[in-house]
Design goal:
The chain is α+β, with helices and mostly antiparallel strands. It contains eleven helices and eleven strands. The longest helix is centred in the last third of the chain and has 19 residues. The protein is globular, with a radius of gyration of 20 Å.
Length: about 280
């Protein structure tokens, strides 16, 4: 996978970037940057890609991304208004000239070191971090910096965290915006209703089937079959929320025409049946 490099430009008087990102949808844009990033999903649902890990996200999802860890968020285009996330980006310059080394051994040093693989705070609500992150974009620069240091200390003490990527990325993976996985992703998205073979996808990436199988496993942490199933179920989630189509029709539209098999795949990846998933979101 070849993520593109995002160069951040500091605003005068600010040591960190902090904003509420609001879009009609978060598009697939595989990238990395030299800064740490905290991302809190405020509104919207979709698929989160972090290093070689991919999973669904929903409001309350909180991840700390380390420097040069490739990541992106791709929205389900729900009917529930804009997609929003609080994004906080910072370098270890906030700790002084020695950066991370100035911290010495301890929980905060360990937190930032482990963030190279992405840290998901699965019990984030109990840590009381969400409300504080939501308030950060409104603070003055010095107050933002002070609050960031307190948040990082709280994150370092948090329990129930999950490390995401199995790999550590160095930032040398490339800077091209045109990389094979992006082409494969677009192709799969446009042909979900049809049978898609590993040979089809390999052709989009310009690789032989065996080389591509190794590439997709290395890039996403999953086999192509699992990657394809993840894509199909992500689209099924969108259709369950956005439309009134029958589940059997949705199963056909995402290429899993056998309804029993579709239900089994959905349950295994989302821990809920399609009908229950639709009912849950219709109540919100």
């Amino acid at each position: 996978m070849r993520p593109y490099y995002e160069k951040l430009h500091a605003e005068p008087g600010r040591l960190i970037f902090c904003r509420l990102r609001t879009d009609d949808a978060f598009a697939f844009a595989w990238h990395h940057h030299a800064e740490y990033e905290i991302t809190l999903i405020v509104n919207g649902r979709g698929t989160r890609f972090v290093g070689d890990h991919l999973s669904g996200y929903e409001p309350g999802d909180l991840v700390l991304h380390g420097p040069h860890l490739p990541h992106t968020y791709e929205s389900l285009r729900t009917v529930k208004g804009p997609h929003e996330a609080v994004v906080v980006q910072f370098s270890d310059d906030i700790f002084g000239k020695r950066g991370l080394d100035a911290l010495g051994p301890g929980p905060l040093h360990e937190l930032l070191k482990n963030s190279q693989r992405g840290i998901h705070f699965v019990q984030m609500q109990s840590q009381g971090l969400a409300a504080r992150l939501l308030a950060m974009p409104t603070l003055a620069p010095v107050a933002q910096l002070a609050e960031l240091l307190l948040l990082l200390e709280a994150m370092a003490q948090a329990t129930g965290v999950q490390t995401l990527s199995t790999r550590v990325f160095s930032g040398r993976e490339g800077t091209s915006r045109q990389h094979p996985l992006d082409k494969v992703h677009r192709y799969v998205s446009e042909h979900l209703a049809n049978p898609i073979t590993v040979q089809d996808a390999a052709g989009q990436a310009g690789m032989g089937a065996s080389t591509f199988s190794r590439f997709i496993k290395r890039s996403t942490g999953h086999s192509f079959v699992r990657y394809l199933t993840e894509m199909r179920i992500a689209e099924a989630c969108r259709l369950l929320i956005d439309t009134d189509a029958a589940i059997s029709q949705i199963a056909r539209e995402v290429g899993l025409a056998n309804v029993s098999h579709f239900n089994d795949r959905f349950l295994s990846l989302r821990n809920i049946r399609p009908s229950e998933y639709r009912r849950a979101f219709r109540k919100r």
